[in-house]
Amino acid sequence: MNMLNTPKEMLRTEDRAMEEIKTDVLVIGAGSGGLSFAAGASQMGADVTLLEGHKMGGDCLNFGCVPSKALIAAGKQAQAMRSGEKYGVSPVSPKVDFAAAKQHVHKVIDTIAPVDSQERFEGLGVRVIREYGAFADKDTVVAGSYRITARRIVIATGSSPLVPPIDGIDTVTVHTNETIFDLMEKPDHLVIVGGGPIGMEMAQAHVRLGCKVTVIEGAKAMGKDDPEMAAIVLDTLRAEGVEIVEGAKAQRISGKGKTITVHTDNGDFTGSHLLMAVGRKANIDRLNLDAAGIEHDRAIKVGPDLRTTNRRVYAIGDVAGGFQFTHVAGYHGATVIRPILFGLPAKAREDHIPWATYTQPELAQVGLTEAQARERHGRALEVLRFPFHENDRAIAEGKTKGLIKVMVVKGRPIGASIVGEQAGELIGLWALVIANKLKIGAVAAMVAPYPTLGEISKRAAGQYYVPRLFENPTVKKVVGLVQRYLP
């Protein structure tokens, strides 16, 4: 939810009549978290008012998850045409219509948009007001010509791309995820500042669609992921032509004509277009949080129950800090249903939250990485491994680049890392296991259809029993005795 008006402008009421609204719950922001909560609360009988001054569906639908995956899909189609030789299909150089690829992106957005539309939510009984909101006091928000008082308030304003104040950045055109999908001309050379998931996804999509791409990262590319897994992704991107420069902090930006140069402490890098993908900032600046007694720094401070320092107000999703994922916002929205509607306690967890980077190969994670698990559990940790190149479906599909690692303590998985084809789909099983505190035997006992990539998880779980059964002298002796005396 973008904030355009200042709190003073929003609270200036002397020149206009204000319409008073009293509601059970006021939701500020119609992104994933706000919509999830509003739909559930309204259908359960609460009087719900929803504020959104920008686009329904928030960042994910309009500028993030949906358009990025649509563009990635276009890039996959182009890459498939280049890489058919091993299947007996002559490779060809695809003719990429970049504008048409972007039109595909917007068709996907338009197809999904009705699910998040004002009309749908009004049909569910939600009062939708297309205005931005600012607190007037602890339980009152002013939005346009409305003064809304609510028993409970849910802040779900999300986050926006961070554009750091680099010297000279205001002299050139800077794209973020909010503008890159509207760019219809193909960049000759896209320079991306930021080597995290967004930067890497966009780098691969654009290089596959015929652009030259350079990624500049101040530290380590994909530095928050397991380094062994990240290396597989980065090697693939480099092989496809993406230039990845690590340890290069942007110090100054200059531009002349159709060229933009990023000056770093590790050299200068010039391209035709610039994409900034260095992180996100919580949308809190226009909410007038101090008027409501809500503590904040870079994000709103919340407890494990997602309640702010104002007991009437909750904050969910990106604006609450922590993991900045669409599915986390949805999870938060479902979590606060319990205390707000039923007065029941509820706490949000993070140990079972999965995430994925949708490069090819994909990289997915849930729970602790190997390094985190070793630091926390030391010698009690067991790491189970299984490679994609030993999976029959991966062999048949020619998608053998990949690996799964499962971190186990006392028979219970505490983390899983997967890099490879459909890693984002495969991680769901391990998110289920960790969320429900299941033991590794639950996965080992699973029967997966053959041949599927799902067998990779079962085979990894089976590694837990190799030293206990197949390499155990006692087991061999017992089997020998049973076989000798069994009638």
From TrEMBL:
Record-annotated FAD/NAD(P)-binding domain positions: 24-333
Disulphide bridges, residue numbers: 60-65
The name this protein goes by in its record: Pyruvate/2-oxoglutarate dehydrogenase complex, dihydrolipoamide dehydrogenase (E3) component
Cofactor binding remark: Binds 1 FAD per subunit.
Cofactor or coenzyme needed: FAD
Similarity annotation: Belongs to the class-I pyridine nucleotide-disulfide oxidoreductase family.
GO molecular function: flavin adenine dinucleotide binding; NAD(P)H dehydrogenase (quinone) activity; oxidoreductase activity, acting on a sulfur group of donors, NAD(P) as acceptor
Residues at which NAD(+) binds: 194-201, 217, 279
PROSITE patterns: PYRIDINE_REDOX_1
Keywords: Disulfide bond, FAD, Flavoprotein, NAD, NADP, Nucleotide-binding, Oxidoreductase, Pyruvate, Redox-active center
Binding site for FAD: 69, 133, 157-159, 318
InterPro entries assigned to the protein according to its UniProt record, in alphabetical order: FAD/NAD-bd_sf, FAD/NAD-binding_dom, FAD/NAD-linked_Rdtase_dimer_sf, Pyr_nuc-diS_OxRdtase, Pyr_nucl-diS_OxRdtase_dimer, Pyr_OxRdtase_I_AS
Domain Pyridine nucleotide-disulphide oxidoreductase dimerisation positions: 353-460
